[in-house]
């Protein structure tokens, strides 16, 4: 009997997701079973955890399992678990809305192209809603552990705009999902097909997935009487938690499938590392690097972290204490023998065990990435393109591992004529010119702006490599990374390039030039006044007439932009104005007798240099006016 039936509309995002699920996921439709069995296993894990402090929740039935059954006549497939179950409110919340933040933006970005969107949707994770790949109606009957039989709830939907919920009686705790299969999906009403899917995808989840085995009547075989057997539920999977096995017992396929279960991802992982550690600390970790970044990796409240088990009992999901933020893309689990079973998030936070696990797991991840970087460049590039920018948060967050993180960084560089970020600091050092003791880089708004920056001119001419950085995070990164392997990292847009050792003769020549052209420098300083900090003969230009650079102690242009974008106040920073004395425009400037025109030329050069460096001017109309008035003068 059902009462209090209500009809609810799906949250817009769920309706969009359902449309996509039914239209784009046909090619791999059997995974619906993995998703539903995975949810059942999670529900069992949650009950086991809650029952640690309240054994009554088991209601006398502590054998947690999920059962598959089908009815050929009715065309239904049922997945029934005796896990934690759901209350009416939970059913409405979990099966009618998507709680992940950033969901609306995610849907706004879909293209409408089924093939592309199905890739994206895999990153998003459709979970329960994958039921609608094969079913045109889904009935969920659930009852939360610890409640009376009359606290059951039934949810039903055809996967279009709405669903119904009603109160029902349900004697057994847990959740039953009844799929009313579409006419062309009846292949799933088959014992062998189901067994095959279960062993392919769900062999190593922690609970048995059972199917009904019919009994056999007594029979004669080779003159012997074989007694009758009774029908019984039998596990179709191995049901041993994968990470408790030794590595040699686990196949690649099994690692990959297990990943999809823990990470709720649809794609194979890129890399994993499985380790049992004994001794002072005892734990097992199974850490995966996904192939693709999740849709919400840059969302501030993105949920991440490992699954935590204590002595093989599931304790919590998304335990973010075990890895630093800059490794938030790592998925997997840690199973500790040293933490208490009743550990809470608060206790975890302050625990020494957590601290040492975090240190060890961080090292492990950095180690596995380093190894991939050395052994498989192609795979590493795939990793870098997805997670490189997250890793760049590392040097600021994790001082102790700065050098190890720096080894993992990859940059675009003048060495390669391409924007691909594949140059490591170690590779740069190997190619350093004789006498060069610094690593040069530039941070600009785009790859093109970096590559074509006038600040690179002399270095290019001398064949000195410069790393070309153009991601938003790069300035932040370089602020925290001042040295690698004993070599300092130097921005070509700041202070001195420190090329002294490279070119004694040129340095002497420059000093001589500065002396000879002192009057010019003084005149420029006078007309530009407090717009600049200082005017100098440039060390770095060959083709451009002038550039601006930032004093060593001042905040760089990129940092100023970052802070402004974040709405923060920034101090005024005056540039050092550098002139290329070998440039004809500068020679012309020097010869200009008319003071007013001299001031206009100098102002124009400064505006141009500022534009090239910062991409914008404080007073663009002044620049336009300068340009126009000079044109007029010249065309007289
Ligand atoms: N068998 C079940 N027993 C109890 N709760 C369930 C069950 N199936 C689903 N749920 C609840 O519904 C929620 C939504 O499930 P769904 O599969 O859509 O997403 P998910 O498992 O949280 O994550 P993902 O979308 O990444 O798969 C779950 O988080 C859980 O709270």
UniProtKB/TrEMBL annotation:
Enumerate the subcellular locations listed in this protein's record, separating them with semicolons: Cytoplasm
Q: Where is this region: B?
A: 346-561
Recorded GO cellular component terms are: cytoplasm
Give the residue ranges for region: A.
Answer: 1-345
Q: Tell me the domain of life.
A: Bacteria
Quaternary state and interactors? Homodimer.
Instruction: Tell me its family.
Output: Belongs to the heat shock protein 90 family.
> NCBIfam families attached here?
PRK05218.1
In its UniProt entry, what is this protein called? Chaperone protein HtpG
Q: Which organism is it from?
A: Ferrimonas marina
């Amino acid at each position: 009997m059902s009462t209090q039936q209500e009809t609810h509309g799906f949250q817009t995002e769920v309706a969009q997701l359902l449309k996509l699920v039914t239209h784009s996921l046909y090619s791999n439709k059997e995974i619906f079973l993995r998703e539903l069995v995975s949810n059942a296993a999670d529900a069992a894990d949650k009950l086991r955890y809650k029952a640690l402090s309240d054994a009554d929740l088991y209601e006398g039935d502590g054998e947690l399992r999920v059962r598959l059954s089908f009815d050929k006549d009715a065309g239904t497939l049922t997945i029934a678990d005796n896990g934690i179950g759901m209350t009416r409110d939970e059913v409405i919340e979990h099966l009618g809305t998507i709680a992940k933040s950033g969901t609306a933006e995610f849907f706004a970005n879909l293209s409408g192209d089924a093939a592309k969107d199905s890739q994206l949707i895999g990153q998003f994770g459709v979970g329960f809603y994958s039921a609608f790949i094969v079913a045109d109606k889904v009935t969920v009957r659930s009852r939360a552990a610890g409640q009376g039989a009359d606290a059951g709830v039934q949810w039903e939907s055809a996967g279009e705009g709405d669903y119904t919920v009603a109160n029902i009686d349900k004697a057994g705790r847990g959740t039953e999902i009844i799929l009313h299969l579409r006419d062309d999906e009846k292949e799933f009403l088959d014992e062998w097909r189901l067994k095959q899917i279960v062993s392919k995808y769900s062999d190593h989840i922690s609970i048995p997935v059972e199917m009904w085995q019919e009994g056999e009547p007594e029979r004669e075989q080779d003159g012997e009487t074989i007694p009758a057997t009774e029908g019984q539920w039998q596990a179709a999977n191995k049901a041993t938690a994968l990470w408790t096995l030794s590595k040699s017992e686990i196949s690649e396929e099994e690692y990959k499938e297990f990943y999809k279960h823990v990470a709720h991802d649809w794609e194979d992982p890129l890399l994993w590392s499985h380790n049992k550690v004994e001794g002072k600390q005892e734990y097992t970790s199974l850490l995966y690097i996904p192939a693709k970044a999740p849709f919400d990796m840059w969302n501030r409240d993105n949920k991440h972290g490992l699954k935590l088990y204590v002595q093989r009992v599931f304790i919590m999901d998304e335990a973010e204490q075990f890895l630093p933020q800059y490794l938030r893309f790592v998925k997997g689990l840690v199973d500790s023998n040293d933490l208490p079973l009743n550990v809470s998030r608060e206790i975890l936070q302050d625990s020494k065990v957590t601290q040492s696990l975090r240190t060890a797991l961080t090292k492990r991840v950095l180690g596995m990435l380093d190894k991939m970087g050395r052994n498989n460049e192609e795979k590493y590039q795939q990793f870098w393109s997805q997670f490189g920018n997250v890793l760049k948060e590392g040097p600021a967050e994790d001082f102790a591992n700065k050098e190890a993180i720096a080894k993992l960084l990859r940059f675009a560089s003048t060495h390669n004529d391409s924007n691909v970020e594949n140059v490591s600091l170690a590779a740069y050092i190997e190619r350093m010119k004789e006498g060069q003791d610094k690593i040069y880089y530039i941070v600009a708004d785009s790859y093109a702006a970096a590559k074509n920056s006038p600040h690179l001119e002399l270095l290019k001419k001398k064949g000195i490599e410069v790393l070309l950085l153009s991601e938003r995070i790069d300035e932040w990164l370089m602020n925290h990374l001042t040295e690698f392997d004993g070599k300092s990292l130097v921005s070509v847009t700041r202070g001195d390039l420190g090329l002294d050792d490279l070119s004694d003769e040129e340095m002497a020549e420059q000093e001589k030039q500065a002396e000879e052209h002192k009057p010019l420098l003084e005149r420029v300083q006078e007309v530009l006044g407090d717009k600049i900090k200082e005017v100098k003969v440039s060390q770095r230009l060959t083709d451009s007439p002038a550039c601006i650079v930032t004093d060593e102690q001042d905040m760089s242009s990129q940092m100023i932009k970052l802070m402004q974008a974040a709405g923060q106040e920034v101090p005024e920073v005056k540039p050092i104005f550098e002139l290329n004395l070998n440039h004809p425009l500068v020679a012309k400037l020097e010869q200009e007798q008319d003071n007013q025109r001299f001031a206009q030329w100098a102002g124009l050069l400064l505006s141009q240099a500022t534009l090239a460096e910062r991409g914008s001017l404080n007073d663009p109309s002044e620049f336009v006016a300068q340009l126009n008035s000079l044109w007029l003068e010249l065309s007289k």
